[in-house]
Amino acid sequence: MISRYSLPEMAELWSDQERYATWTKVEVLASEAQALLGRIPESALVDIRRAQVPSPARVAELDRERDHEILSFLAALCEGIPDDSARWVHLGMTSYDLVDTALGFSLARACDLVLQAAVRLRGVLADRAVEHWNTVCIGRTHGMHAEPTTFGHKLAGFAFAIDRSVRRLEAARAEVAVGTISGSVGTYSLIDPFVEEYVCAELGLGVEPVPSQVVARDRHAELLHAVATLGACIEQIATEVRLLSRSEVREVEESRTAGYQGSSAMPHKRNPTGSERLSGLSRLLRGYAGTMLENVALWHERDLSHSSVERVVVPDAMIVAHYQATAAADLVAGLDVFPDRMRAAIDQTNGLVYSSAVLADLLAGGTERERAYRAVQAAANRAIASGEDFGTLLRTEGIDAGQLRPERFLVHHDAIFKRLEALREMEH
């Protein structure tokens, strides 16, 4: 992923140097287990523990000759180990015993970073929902004015969507945080299962229950779908911000720096570029998720078709998800909200947004449904065409609507607020 959409702590996790450091860690742990079994001498273990993590440059140099990154890594690793000890490195293992166990460890750490960002986003949304719980605004369905709601209600809905994404990510983390050290076709033919148990326990990983040569790829597909769903939920927030930021609406606006410039040609522009960026990144995540589904079906015990895909898609998806969730939390935390413009959007309808309440009152008073609906609709149509006050036109239809206020629609709003408070308690 390009540096523009990468945060340092996540980008470092997927660097070549960190990958080789993790591979070295797996090989050392495997040697420790073999020593506990009496399969390799203690003197060899001492030498193996002293080995330095190979440099990416040295591995790349060897790989140009061998065309096999894992063997090149092992050769580079063993250059710093005496020959009598180096022969015990990677004992009984196949390449993906190393790669997939290390991948499970890296994915668990990456998930933790994404989860931290998503939990922060959930908390920011919940806090701002409480802040604006009574900030009345117009609800829109089909893009059209509907009934009054509150801006806090909108934000609370987003907070619960992110909460569901957090729980999906937690479940997906458990599925990908596994390893396998079981040999060429997963039968432990040349290695004791204790080695796998020891290494995975030390790394905080579960064990693939029925290994082939690799960890099952449906696990990784599940993770990327959880990540893509988080991205879609963030896109929903970003889309709302974009819609409410339009010049003719301007109910919210992204926070601006003092030196902000929105357009090279039009100095007046205040574009919602942050939320537009979040929307675009969600498209990447959806594409990555679909690609990972293609990796689930491998030939027999394993082929290599998944490897090239994962080298690109897995790091990029986790880097994008981490950046997107972090940027979304920053956007919501700094979002400028204009309650006066929200109230003005309700008032500019000349009372039309109260039509459902008028209809409900007529029905409660005994008016037949079709007659009540047509009467209210007739007054509404006249108000739309003429710009006259809806309440005044209702009276010409023989309907006294009384006082029309947004609060009429919020009499049971406290029931939802209690759910929001329960969610906020999770943050503390």
TrEMBL record:
- Report the catalytic activity: N(6)-(1,2-dicarboxyethyl)-AMP = fumarate + AMP; (2S)-2-[5-amino-1-(5-phospho-beta-D-ribosyl)imidazole-4-carboxamido]succinate = 5-amino-1-(5-phospho-beta-D-ribosyl)imidazole-4-carboxamide + fumarate
Task: Cite the entry's keywords alphabetically.
Answer: Lyase, Purine biosynthesis
CDD domains listed in its UniProt record: Adenylsuccinate_lyase_1
Molecular-function GO term, any one = N6-(1,2-dicarboxyethyl)AMP AMP-lyase (fumarate-forming) activity
UniProt GO cellular component terms: cytosol
UniProt xrefs under InterPro entries: AdenyloSucc_lyase_C, Fumarase/histidase_N, Fumarate_lyase_CS, Fumarate_lyase_fam, Fumarate_lyase_N, L-Aspartase-like, Pur_lyase
Question: What is its pathway?
Answer: Purine metabolism; AMP biosynthesis via de novo pathway; AMP from IMP: step 2/2; Purine metabolism; IMP biosynthesis via de novo pathway; 5-amino-1-(5-phospho-D-ribosyl)imidazole-4-carboxamide from 5-amino-1-(5-phospho-D-ribosyl)imidazole-4-carboxylate: step 2/2
- Domain Adenylosuccinate lyase C-terminal span(s) in chain numbering: 350-421
Question: PROSITE patterns, from UniProt?
Answer: FUMARATE_LYASES (PS00163)
The record's region (Disordered) falls at: 254-276
A GO biological process held by the record: 'de novo' AMP biosynthetic process
What's its EC?
Answer: 4.3.2.2
| Entries under Pfam families matching the protein | Lyase_1
Family, per entry: Belongs to the lyase 1 family. Adenylosuccinate lyase subfamily.
Q: What is this protein called?
A: Adenylosuccinate lyase
The source organism is: Phytoactinopolyspora halophila
The gene coding this protein:
purB
